[in-house]
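Sanity check. The docking grid for zinc ion depends on where the pocket ends up, so I'm generating a full predicted complex first rather than guessing from homology. Inputs follow.
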Amino acid sequence: MQPLPKDYNFAEIEAKWQRKWEEMGVYRFDWNDTKRKAYTIDTPPPYPSGDLHMGNVLNWTYFDIVARYERMRGFNVLFPQGWDCHGLSIEVQAEKTHGLRKRDVPPDVFRKWCIEIVDKYIALMKEGVVRLGCSIDWKTEYRTMDPDYWRRTQLSFILLHKKGFMYQGTHPVNWCPRCETAIADAEVDYERREGTLHYIHFPLENNSQFLLIATTRPEFIPACVAVAVNPKDERFNCYVGKKINVPLSNRLVNIIADEMVDCTFGTGVVMICTFGDKEDVKTVMRHQLPTIALITETGRISEVGGKYAGLSIKQAREAIVKDLTDAGLLERTEHLQQEVGLCDRCKTHVEILSRKQWFMKTRALTDKVVETADKVTWYPDYMKTRLTDWAQSLDWDWVISRQRVFATPIPVWYCKTCGEPILAEEEWVPIDPKLEPPRIKKCPKCGGTEFVGERDVFDTWMDSSITCAVHAGWPDRKDWRRLFPADVHPSGIDIIRTWAYYLMVRHLALFDETPYKACLINGMVLGSDGRKMSKSLKNYVAAPQVLDKYGSDATRQWAAAGGTTGSDIPFRWPDVEYGRRFLVKLWNVSGFAARLLADYNPTSSAECTLEPLDRWVLSKAARLVEKVTAAMERCEFNVAVEETRNFAWHTFCDCYVEAVKDRLYRSETYGEAKKRGAQKALYETLYTVLQLLAPIIPHVTEEIYQAMYADAKRCMSLQLSPWPDVKDWVDDAAEQRGDVIIALISAVRREKAERHLPLNTPIKRLVVCAEEKDAADTVKAGRDDVVGACKVENLEVNVGKGAGREVPDCPGVWFSAEY
Ligand SMILES: [Zn+2]
Ligand SMILES: [Zn+2]
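Predicted complex below; grid placement will be based on this.
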């Protein structure tokens, strides 16, 4: 037992343990240990953005608590760490940093720029993760931009291609004209914006009449391939089958009937353009209409746009509106609120383009996804529908090819003669088909000998959607199935539709098995103003700022206590300050305990008498263990931290320690055996509190453990100590008796405070009267602590109705003090 320094220096303690834990290998997963059961966390490899934000802190604190808790439960915990490096956002930053576009430099130079940015960002984020005290096994660290990771992504593609899940096709896809690439539905953000509805005359063929069409996108008029009305709409169904003029273009198109036309929107007559929006795509497919590729990959009007060719979309809109006005075809305009799809990386308006792409057959798996999601445990439960609703809402298969540079290459070549795609063999990967030829001499179809490598690359989600298998050791370890499916996949509420979904479809397709047994969801961090925390709203707090000021243990308490799992939680400085105050309280009571336990030997056979309050506090601690364990099992971290803090602060410090101080200090009055009783309860209760808090505030609890307990408890780290199992301490009778004694002591002390007397003012005579004999016996049994805590010279306990004040919370017990 070593004394603790007087002051709690969090910066020093936290840095010390972060270093030591790593040196001691406390968080290493033991691949050779087959005795202990393994527990695997599917750590989502973060996208290295450079900033560790409070959302990361929330997310990481959640799963670090799980990792630490399961370790103490005796599991061999695999807590890996990777970095999801590829993606548009890094490319956009590389372009900005160098003031050039990706196509202005050779791909290898552009890749190098991207890698430099990612390296810098990983270093920054890693520092933050270490400072937060995450119990990661750093030996498992990986980066998806390394060819060794490409190998896994490419292999998964080859296997899925063989199983028939991958195909190439020309289908409409979401397209970002700024990033010049296809993007998936999950990468489209929807925002409400003010738009303009244009009411335009479409003249009927051979007729002076016209139909009025309302559209927010008049620039698409050159791509109009039909006009549709609802067949039930009696205003217009007489026109079905007739032809109508497309304004400004001298083309006739058919008027078609389509039940999907909303009679109440605009005029009830709509133009079908290829492709103005997703509805157009559906209508074109239903009616097998021709397509007109009006928009180019860079977001300009193509040559089919005639006089508008070469204009940007915005310029084309202005020109067309002007021409319609001049021709007298624009009747009026009105404003409206509309949802527009934006590229989630650069916020550019997303267009729909048809171009040859690679797809994964994800829609074929929708029923399976829904069925499997049902078997997964969700924390909290209602998050499941976020996944199933999303899966069921998808109209299109997942487009997995991207027209970018910084990503895993698609391992495919094409025969120059016949165009046949040549897929890499499993043992060829990792490979970049832009730099290396296929390892076959002839095209299997035509015998051609020249090949051209695929230039498209994979969507970055192709890398990060196989992590459950990769973490388990797939494809290199024969025994990877032992660690698969992952025990828990933690995720933010905002990425269920991407991360949880893509993991699910890919692993179902590859292995026909769920990738994770449970899904732990965290909400968003809100600013102190209740809005989502964001730099643009000026309510942003950077994580390092919080860690500098209050340290990790205080910050982690904010994350754990902030709200129920899955709910959005606000960041408030006072919550972190409260965490800090709790740490100081815990530090001070531990320092006090270390002094009073200096002569205590937990293994000694010397006589040790437990007084009623000792049994009381041990029983309360046992109940606390029950509650906290149940909360941890349900991932209710806020319950775990609040219950433990309340117990430590109030039951333990304010009630128990205050009541038994005298017994600890003055063995000459009470005897060695009773002192040892208090020492035992103090020692064991504090240890239990430290253990329950170890997953939440690992640094301070480790520091106290090493000073006070390591010698006797013989665990290298508190983190490796077995989770408390103290059911034996439960004692209903002791709890009832202790409640009476504590209530009496508190009432007497409160009376002193009301009289403005110092708490150590002696009481000459304290008369306690209890209506019930049991209550009187209880007070007599607790005599030592009542006398000690209240400084009573003479305690008299009587049965019967008495004078004086009734003890609050103890009906039928009265006391009167004479000073
Ligand atoms: Zn974009
Ligand atoms: Zn060929």
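Relevant for the grid: The chain has a mean pLDDT of 94.
Also worth noting: Residues 415, 417-418, 420, 443, 445-446, 448 surround zinc ion (ligand 2) (CB under 6 Å).
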